[in-house]
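I am still getting used to backbone structure tokens and would like to learn alongside you. Label the sequence line and the structure token line clearly, so we can match residues to local backbone shapes. Go ahead whenever you are ready, and we will take it from there:
>
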Amino acid sequence: TFKICGSGETVVCERLKDVITEAREAGIKCSFLPGPGEVQLTIKLNDPNNEKNELFRKLDDQIQKILGPDLYGVNEETLMGKVGELLLEKGFTVGAAESCTGGLVTSYLTDVPGSSRYVRGGIIAYSCEAKEKVLGVSPKTLEEHGAVSPETAKEMARGVRRLMNVSFGLATTGLAGPGGEEPGTPIGTVYLGLSTPEGEELIQKIYYPGVQRLTLKKIAAKRAVDLLRRYLINSDEDDQF
């Protein structure tokens, strides 16, 4: 079972269509299971034939290479567990500043046993007042750009990193709907922020129009955790040079 975050089922199917066709022609079963913020692909072979087993292993390698960083785990591995491993390897800590996800990022991160070694906590700053007074988001930023903006997400991430004295600050702010749409910011828009030990401040925009409120919260929370995972993976690659 290959676990994927960052690409939807349609995109994953298109990228893997040749591999899937080859697998099915050889009698290897393939099935997709989409979920909020992720997709799972299962390939299954019930055949002791050595030739088919060799093809199975070859397809396994091909799938992992094609998916690249979108693949966060295989079989029993989880997104939260993988992030926890990466944080522990480097001795890093994380804190979350959440608006639209309402604490779900922190909840996901703490689903892993022993996560207290790297999760310091989370702040639910749902109102502009909380963003300003607790996280230190500039009133000018909120006035000029709004609560749902890349600028606000960036300052939220920076604020929680400083407030909790952690390596990484994660932030989410968005419009989960069904009401409250703002000019230039439609329902389904979410900005994710990441503040790093090196002083980098990264922003990612995701947009999922038409999904239910609770589904969007789950997608946004998982994508926020995945943003941290990708940064940690890239840092590992940079360390090799």
User: Anything to note?
Assistant: Residues 213-239 form the longest helix (27 residues). The beta strands are 2-4, 29-35, 38-44, 71-74, 94-98, 119-124, 168-174, 189-195, 201-207. DSSP finds nine helices and nine strands in the chain. The mean pLDDT is 94.
